[in-house]
Write a structure and sequence with these properties.
65 residues, four-stranded antiparallel β-sheet
Length: 65
């Protein structure tokens, strides 16, 4: 999880893009748009310092309505 947070924070600092920490089963990653990932848990938005801020509502996948 630490590597995913570190990389998401780097993308936020270098490019200014919003990044989100997501979890698949036991694998952590980051994304720029969590709606495109089926079967994930959205953990929060990652800021430039690497802090994970909870999102107001857990977003479900674009494919699961």
């Amino acid at each position: 999880m630490a590597e995913a947070i570190k990389e998401a924070a780097r993308m936020r600092r270098e490019h200014g893009w919003k990044t989100y920490l997501i979890k698949f089963n036991d694998y952590y990653s980051y994304t720029f748009n969590p709606k495109f990932f089926p079967n994930f848990e959205l953990l929060g938005e990652v800021d430039a310092e690497g802090k994970v801020n909870p999102v107001p509502k857990r977003k479900k996948s674009f494919f699961h309505t």
